[in-house]
Amino acid sequence: MEVMAGLTQEELDFKEQPRKWVCSENLAKHIGNAVTILCKVMERVDENKIIVSDMVGQITCTCNNEELFLFAEKDDYVQLEGWALSETEIQCCSLEELKDEATNDETVLLRTKAALMMDQYSAVVYAQ
């Protein structure tokens, strides 16, 4: 419970939301919702903004906490969680760097295809 005590109300609200898998092709459908995406860092614009790719398209990711992107480097594979702000932008709440040897461009593309399929059959996948 001590970990939860250090979170802001926005972070607590986010943690309680279902976070659907998205990709650049279906992000517009999820504007305003909590989302998760596996991607590759293409460019670090500044402390609060990075550009990522899901091997199909690019997405701008922003954050309010400059420490969130502190170690995000070009060509890193990351899983981002946050709020879909537009068809090309996510407000990030969480970033996890993936250093597994199995994570590569093909893995990211496969996750992109899986995200599209999960979106197509969301009633079954997400038990809605």
TrEMBL record:
Record-linked InterPro entries: NA-bd_OB-fold
* Top-level taxon in the UniProt lineage: Eukaryota
Name of the protein: Oidioi.mRNA.OKI2018_I69.XSR.g14739.t1.cds
What is the scientific name of the source organism?
Answer: Oikopleura dioica
